[in-house]
Amino acid sequence: MHLMKWLYPGMGFKRWLFVFALGTLLVGLGAALIFNYKYIDSIEEAIFRFVYTWQGSYDYGFTVVAGVLASLVGSVLMLVATRHVIRSVITALMPEGTSARLVDLVYEKTRLSRGPSVTVIGGGHGLSVLLRGIKELTSNVTAVVTVADDGGSSGRLREELGIIPPGDLRNCLVALADTEPLMEKLFQHRFEGASNLAGHSFGNLFLAAMAEVTGDMETALRESSKVLAVKGRVLPASKESVRLDAILEDGTVVEGESRIPEVPGRIRRVRLFPQDVAPVPSALEALRTADAIILGPGSLYTSIMPNLLVRGVADELRKSHALKIYICNVMTQPGETDGYTASMHAEAILKHAGRGTIDFMLVNNTPISEALRAQYAAQGIYPVAVDEEAINALGIGFVAADIISQADAVRHDPDKLSRNVMRMIYDFRVT
User: Fold this and answer.
1) Does the reported pTM lie above 0.85?
2) CA-to-CA dists, residue 174 to 53, 221, 226, 229, 405, angstroms
3) Which residue range(s) make up the domain with 76?
4) Window from 208-217, 357-366, 422-431 with minimum mean pLDDT
């Protein structure tokens, strides 16, 4: 019954199916003529009779030529028909405005599908930067995203609707999306004014609505991925509502992710409340099956650590035979990593998640311009020093590369970052 639907009026298939069938018949006829198959004696005799009448003698070579011509015409008809059928399907499925040729689209999709399986752990702006670049190199990417955010629009929706914060999840969806620029602008649009909607992004509201409709944020993300044509998957680390607390060196406990950078004092460790938080099973599975697991980039204590504190995540990370790479921040972060070197970033991760969670670090080796140094220093922000010996003492290898852009601020560059990450995966991954 489903097959008959292809013959519905207006779909443009029937004519090309007929052409394809005609081409198939001609190819068969041509082959029969070439190899003198006896089951078409009547056609062959008619051709011989025509040749004899025309030339006065039998010439088998003429039937070979006729067979070749028939096969060529049939093959051309089959190719034309196949091309139009495929184009009809692709045109119906591709977003409007897509200008790439069909062969290029197929090649690109095939190339990306053969890329390594990469699982990225983190949150915030840094994670979305990496995803923007890595989606151009592999479509087998899974983002495991923190759910501890309690500020801004995400915090308000979390409190009012009882859902996990959608902000970081939205950013990752948009970063992995292969859709029209207008759709991206729509998802990132933030309402202004003095209404109750002020400060909310459309994407956050969309995910909140989708979670209510589907009954589950994981399902909401999966369905939203179809809308945005996402390359890969976006998964929350947990579907439970959690709070991130920081214990400072002096024993002070700071409750809430958004408050941690605001309270002065060095962080000794962070914890989740409640402590025994159930993971998303598919997130653990993504860690088990990955060729490479990437931590960061992003805020050390408020974007990366919350994921590692979810039950089972650190265990799977330690047991994994994948290549485990930590992308170190380029600049220190006030209230979180003041005065931290690269090795201190890595040491904090090992302290929370255990040995064996990092194989290599990727650090920046491009000098920061004097103008930007002065600009950041006024805010108490400084370049992260790369202390090579201390990194090696932790049993961690490292790769130094140019991974930043310095247009108006110091940022990880999506293309530079993803290329260097993929180079490390191909050079160092365990097979």
Assistant:
1) no
2) 73, 11, 12, 10, 21
3) 3-93
4) 422-431
